Amino acid sequence: xxxxxxxxxxxxxxxxxxxxxxxxxxxxxxxxxxxxxxxxxxxxxxxxxxxxxxxxxxxxxxxxxxxxxxxxxxxxxxxxxxxxxxxxxxxxxxxxxxxxxxxxxxxxxxxxxxxxxxxxxxxxxxxxxxxxxxxxxxxxxxxxxxxxxxxxxxxxxxxxxxxxxxxxxxxxxxxxxxxxxxxxxxxxxxxxxxxxxxxxxxxxxxxx
Length: 208
Hints:
alpha+beta, Rossmann fold, 2 domains, three-stranded antiparallel beta sheet, 6 helices, 3 strands, globular
């Protein structure tokens, strides 16, 4: 039987905190894999960095360097995650730097095409416009906050429209970074929504 897929991966994670005119390094080059479905404990003396590492994995703190891949992939366009802009794109961020808004936009466009009534036209068109405008607005805010020098390297490696950066050779698709368990959850969620669309919403998702 194969080993469980990691739920969390830490690669060369380092964390430093400012102290006076310099900095104190709390974590240095941490490599860690936490298998899905297993109980994992961090053991060590007080002050060794356990809480700092857990806070980084949870997304409360950003690493000074290194990469953490967990349930949600680190993404500089996410709320309060602009400090991650120096990290290389990972997982779904390789496909689009705005995975949530892109998903909302695609959902709206599919329903816009599949529904011909005026009410649906206004409803789903509004969602599609909001999602598209949101990606542009977030990019503009990140550019103002980080400056061209901070934002452009990340922007050049990624794209708003899915797979554009990959097709242009600025990035490459690595399915294993997303993780088999995430693919499985996505497929299960899709099937549940597809099967529950008619009973819950009263409208069949399939053409009559």
